[in-house]
Structures are given as C-alpha cells and as structure tokens.
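JOB MANIFEST
job_type = single_chain_structure
chain_count = 1
residues = 540
[input]
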Amino acid sequence: MAIHWLPPQKELIRRFGSVGMIYWEARRQFGKTTTMAGVALKQMMKHRGRLVTFASASINVGKELIYKEANVLNDAMSEMRAQAAANGMKLTLAENNGKEYSAIDIDGIADLFERSRLEMRLWHSQSVCSRTQIIAPNPATARGFSGDVLLDEIGFIPDFVEVWEAMEPIASRDPSFRVLMASTPPGDESHLCYKIGEPPEGMRFEPCGDGHWYRSQAGILTLRVDVWDGQECGVRLYDLETREPITPEQHRDRALDKDGWDRNYALKRIPGGLVAMPAVAIDAARAKGREECVALDLGTVAPENEEIALQRIVSQVLNVANQGIWGAGYDIATTTNKKSNPSSLTLSQARGPERWARFIVRWKSANPDFSEAVLKRSLAALKQAGARIQALNIDASNERYYATQLKSRITDCPVNLIVSGEVVETGDPTQPEMRQKERLGNLLVNTANARLLACPDVEWIKTDWLLVKKEKGLFVTEVDPAGNHGDTFDSTKHSLDALESSGEIEALFPAIGDLAASGRSKDPSWMDRTQDFFKGLLYG
C-alpha cells in the first residue's frame, strides 16, 4: 500500500537535507517513525556509503523502522518507475549478480537489502552500500554514532543528557551530517527534552495543516504538529466505543488522564513531574534576586589559581554583605556514581519572612585547605560588613570526620553538623518524625513555592536544582555528566536552616520594610504566627 505523506512529513523530509539539526514535536500516532524511515532512505540513496544511525527509547520502534523503510522504498520505486515510463525509459530492480526483476514488489525490494541484526543495507554497487543501523539509546552505544543521527522518543530516554553529550561531537565533525530528534513533551520538566523544543515565550499556535516551524528557546529549529494541526491535514480522532470521529475537545473530555492527553496530543509542557522544586518557583526566585544575588561557578580550581579564586569570592561577598541577619550552608564535595561532585557554599539573608540566597559559589578542588579557606574568608568578609551570622550548617552526611575538623577551626559563628539520614522530631502529630534530608528539602522547596525565596539569576543554578527529585515523599538527586548533584540546592537549604538555628525565630522577622532591624518583636502573637508559618514550611 502506497504511503500517504502528510504536508508536515513532506516538508520535514525536504528540509532535512539542508538543515543541520531539527527537533520534531508531534502528537502521538502522527507517523514520526515512518517519516524517519523516509529521511533515512533519502540520505542512504543520496550519499554513497552513508551510515544512518537510528536510536529510540523503544527497541521495538527500532525494529519497526526496518519494515517501514522497505515500504517507503517500495512506494518511492513505484513512483520512479512511473516517471521513467512516462519518459520512454525502463526501470528495473537487479541483484548484485545482474539478475533483473520485471515487477516491483516487496519481495523484489527485499533482495536489494541485506539485513543483519537491526541493520539495513542499500547497495549502490557491488562494493558500495549505505546502511541504517539500529542501536540502543544509551551513552555507551551513543559513542558509536556516526553519519546522520535519528533519535526517536527522546523524552523517554532516561539519561538523554549523557546520550546527547556523546552524540553531539560526532554530529558536529562533518558538515554533511544531519540530526533529527523527535518526541512529545516529557512528564518530567527536568528532562533535557523539555527545554529542547520549548517555544519562544508568548508564541501561540493556531490550527495549521502544515504544522508550525519555529526556533525554540534552546535555539533549535523545531517543527510542531499538535492534535489540531493533525486534524487540519486529515488525521482524525475516534471514539473508543462507537468508533465515530470526534473533535479533540471531545476526545480530551473522555480521556482518563487529562495531563497525559495534554502532553501527548496538545503538546503542552506541564510543570512538575518528579522534580522537587517546580521550575516556575525557581524562575520566581531568580526574578526576585536578579539585582541583588550573585553566583560563582569556579569549576576545577588548580593549585596555582587558588588565591585568585579566593579573592574573587571575597570581592563578591563584600558586594552583597550588609548588617542584616545571615545564615551559611556548606555542602562538602563527595563522589557519586564514580563522578566527583563539587563543593558548594550559600550565604543567605533573612528579610522579614523572605529568605535571600545572596551568594552561591561552587567549586571542585583536591585541596581541603582551599575549601576551608573559602569558608573562613567568606564568613570573615560577612563579619567585616557588620553582618550577624546565626550559624554555619555543614552537611556531614558522608564526610563526618572532615566536617568535625572544620567545626573545630571555624570561629566566626556557631557551626552545626547536619547528617541527612538522621531522624528528627518534627512536632507535627501527623508526621512526628522525619529525616533531616526531607525536613531541610521541604524547607527550601516550600519557601520557594510560597514565593519567599530569592536566588541568583543564573541558569546553572536552576539546572542544578532540577536534578533534585521527590519520590514517595523522599528527596533523591540525579547526577549530571559533569558530576553536579544538586549541590547548590543542598548548600542553600542548609543556609536557610542555619538562619533558624538559634531558636530565636522572632529575632529574624522584623516588620516588613524594616530590612535592617534585628531586635525582638514586641508583639508575642507575631512570634507565634511566625513559628507556625515556618513549621509549615519545614514539614510541608
């Protein structure tokens, strides 16, 4: 049966050869795999000896591509034969040994291909063939990518960041290589796919049978085809019981999972998923702190650059420091999944009920003396500006001996050692006990959700915080390819807790607008309201 190509499919196949990279976001069952088969065959026929690498989150989809390629080629060859006949020519199929076929059918076309395990070959001559190989989308196999790269269902590849890291250099080394990625929006907004096709802010999509082309906020050329666009070009929806055609609105009304429908058909990006802190809350904190909060990512600090790095840190601390009330949080570098995590320090200030993460710095260093110097000089700079430092909280979960040594050498403020797995009493009868990890994670997340948090307006902090997930009430954190592990999230939650560590919560909440005040409130009811409010933030 001849394939009926829809306008968006035709345009994508046409543009693929002239554009280096395209992301295709299309509603479910719009023919993404069939289109990729057409793209693969076009490249195989156009370039002698070309390798096309196809990877999908579903290996069954990979197998399906092989058969769809055969059908696409059958359709193409039939059209070519008709055009040849119209021009007084004859087109036949032939084996490598010269045997010709007078009819064009699937069996005849199958003789033009040599199939091995998940591979299809199209022979240009007895010695030159183009190939499509099907591989699993994981970082190990991704390093074998070459030629044109087709990635299907990228929103469902768990470690897509690492797959992308392995693939991008190969796709960039030859100007004739092309990349096509396809998916629907993932349910987890921390997934890289969530950002790859994100439309420009404020962009609206009216139903269009050709789909919508735009350059995403990530800078990638994107073709978007939602359920209303599909309806315009003849792709209908049908009632599951009556099998009668229905509108997209009727289809959604009958859907059991409305969020799933919105992602799979309407291509909506729904904030949340497994992330502990929604991106909208992080964006609000960044907007609040845009003018007054700063961040430094020092990367790996070599011994010869340590003093320069320390001077940069002190300079930035002095830029933000004042006579307010401050708390400090330090997350010690560790190793997770054989990857070195950075250290991170956050200095936060109390402003009425608001918490301002005024300074965040992260670094990697093999020298513990340098990390100690970061703490000492930062705290000394705060004190020099007249700040009142409530406490320094150190995450001692994995480096308790080192943390204990640090505590004995820090003299600028009280030091608390926090062990994430330690179970503490909450004072909440509905959940009387909780691990420190969840208690402090809730403190930061709930403060942000209440729009009481300010932080530096830098993208890498948002990326780091989105690594932190919440599963069944517990905080868990992914590790990105660079070894980042939500380290600034942890240092920030510790800094917020350090602000409360004295037990004199009322001293931290002057009347709104009186940012420099530090005395106790004269109204006892204000203290009670404040304690109740922050108990809610702590235990959610």
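[summary]
The chain has 18 helices and 25 strands.
The CA atoms of residues 220 and 338 lie 32 Å apart.
exit_status = 0
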